[in-house]
Design brief:
The protein has 492 residues and is of the alpha+beta class. It contains eight helices and 15 strands. It folds into three domains: 1-237, no CATH class; 251-329, Helix Hairpins, CATH 1.10.287.130; 336-484, Heat Shock Protein 90. A six-stranded antiparallel sheet has the order 2-1-8-7-6-3.
Length: 492
């Protein structure tokens, strides 16, 4: 059963069926109990009427033969002494069980009443209050209890509830009145209710299943639209298409919106990848073509071979390949190690190796014994960031490049690289971090690079849980600030 609609319909039907069966059983049991209680009250009433007659006027055993006892089918009556001998019974009573006195003809001893009988529910039904004191002369005692039994009255057999009631007549004799109330009405009502439930239950289950099927089908119709559109997008590889969004505010609508957001992000990623491949191919083409030309000229005319130029093109090609490889690793989700390093010490080391730079690099660093500049991450990648920022400053500085390491107000370690060049226009301060972007189109490729340095620097900063931003330096040029969490802090 692979259909969600079928599963939902079957599940709803099963739940409703269980609930209805439980509720129906409870209703039938409650109805049966209530009607049984009603029969008990009827039996009590009949027994009390007979007991009133006995308490008011009967004197001696012979007087019981003249008692006016009900003879209809619904209320059979027996009057027996404490030894179980029948003193009086309904005229049409032919057979009886459940009272403890099996005789139906006065004067013949029956089974001795044991004081308790078994009810139809399998439990003993004993006296009502357990009081064994006999009533006084002319008084009626409490109901001793109720039992379920059978009786045949005028040829008609049926099930009855019997009430036992003690009464003492005017001669001081204590007798027990057994009066019954028919359970036919109870059985008929319970049977009718059970039949109605058995007929109505399947019909109701069919209705529930059908309605659930239709409602689920209607609710899942947008999902089918989303599925079919996604299948079409997969087949056509056209990521510009979008799935239909229902005009509702439910889970299906949120699923459609999330799917479209995913498609938009995927389309943007694919487009970035295409641009990256195209730009990388374009950037690689120039040094390769230049190097090839120089080698071909050198092969034909060795005296014209420009060895320094060939070496420069080779170095440029090597750097570009390294940049592309690093970007590929970053795009693949490569994360830096968790090693600790002193950012100030890293700056000292890198600056000391740049003695041949066009503009001398001044540094403002904390004391080597101060651990405030410790960060966690990859030494190689952070050295690459610092080198890229210094290379960028060297290209734009007039006479001053300054690097500093401080502790920011937010507790982060801040690496700043400032120059006194023309700076970065505010409108371009985010664009310069895009790949293969060079703001100065007049700058030669050899001087300006491929436009990957700042993109790599920001990607590395983000992989280390930090940020890289650009602003204005005190000297009026550009100020790049790399903010990294201190060692031991969560990088999120």
């Amino acid at each position: 059963m692979s259909s969600v609609r079928a599963k939902a319909a079957l599940g709803a039907t099963a739940v409703v069926a269980v609930a209805l069966v439980a509720a129906g059983t409870a209703v039938l049991l409650s109805l049966r109990a209530n009607l049984t209680d009603q029969a008990d009250r009827q039996a009590d009433s009949v027994a009390r009427e007979v007991a009133l007659d006995i308490a008011a006027g009967v004197r001696g055993p012979a007087a019981y033969a003249g008692l006016d006892l009900p003879d209809e089918e619904d209320h059979p009556v027996q009057v027996a002494d404490e030894d179980g001998r029948l003193l009086a019974a309904s005229e049409k009573l032919e057979r009886i069980s459940g009272t403890g006195v099996s005789a139906v003809t006065p004067g013949r001893p029956g089974a001795v009443r044991g004081g308790e009988d078994r009810d139809d529910d399998g439990e003993d039904d004993k006296g009502g209050d357990g009081d064994d004191d006999e009533p006084g002369v002319g008084e009626i005692g409490d109901v001793l209890g109720h039992t379920t039994g059978t009786a045949t009255v005028d040829g008609a057999a049926g099930e009855y509830r019997f009430a036992a009631l003690e009464v003492t007549d005017r001669s001081g004799r204590t007798v027990v009145v057994h009066a019954g109330a028919s359970l036919t009405a109870r059985d008929d009502a319970v049977g009718t209710a059970a039949v109605a439930m058995l007929i109505g239950l399947p019909v109701l289950l069919v209705v529930v299943g059908g309605v659930t099927w239709l409602v689920t089908r209607r609710a899942l119709r947008p999902v089918e639209g989303i599925r079919s559109e996604m299948a079409a997008i997969t087949a056509s590889a056209d990521l510009s298409r979008r799935v239909p969004e229902p005009a509702t505010h439910d889970e299906v609508a949120r699923l459609a919106r999330t799917t479209n957001e995913t498609l938009a992000a995927l389309e943007a990623a694919v487009e970035r990848q295409r641009r990256f491949v195209a730009d990388a191919s374009h950037e690689l083409r120039s040094p390769i073509a230049s190097l090839r030309t120089q080698l071909e000229v050198g092969d034909a005319h060795p005296e014209l071979l420009d060895v320094p130029g060939a070496v420069a093109d080779t170095v440029r090609l090597q750097r570009l390949a390294a940049d592309l490889l690093l970007l590929a690793r970053l795009d693949a989700g490569e994360t830096p190690g968790a090693g600790r390093l002193d950012l100030a010490a890293l700056v000292r080391e890198e600056v000391s190796q740049r003695a041949t730079d066009r503009v001398p690099v001044a540094s403002e660093l904390p004391d080597p014994a101060d651990a405030a500049a410790e960060v966690a991450g990859s030494r190689g990648q952070l050295a690459r960031v610092l080198g890229n920022l210094l290379d960028n400053a060297q290209r734009h500085a007039r006479a001053s490049v300054r690097v500093s390491v401080t502790r920011g107000a937010d507790g982060r370690v801040v690496l700043g690289v400032a120059d006194d060049g023309s700076g970065v226009p505010e409108a371009e301060r985010e664009r310069i971090f895009a790949r293969f972007v060079r703001l100065d189109d007049a700058r030669s490729r050899d001087d300006g690079g491929a436009g990957l340095g700042l993109a790599i620097a920001r990607d590395v900063a983000e992989r280390h849980g930090g940020t890289l931003t650009v602003g204005t330096s005190p000297a009026g040029g550009a100020l790049f600030e790399l903010r990294l969490p201190p060692a031991g802090a969560a990088t999120g």
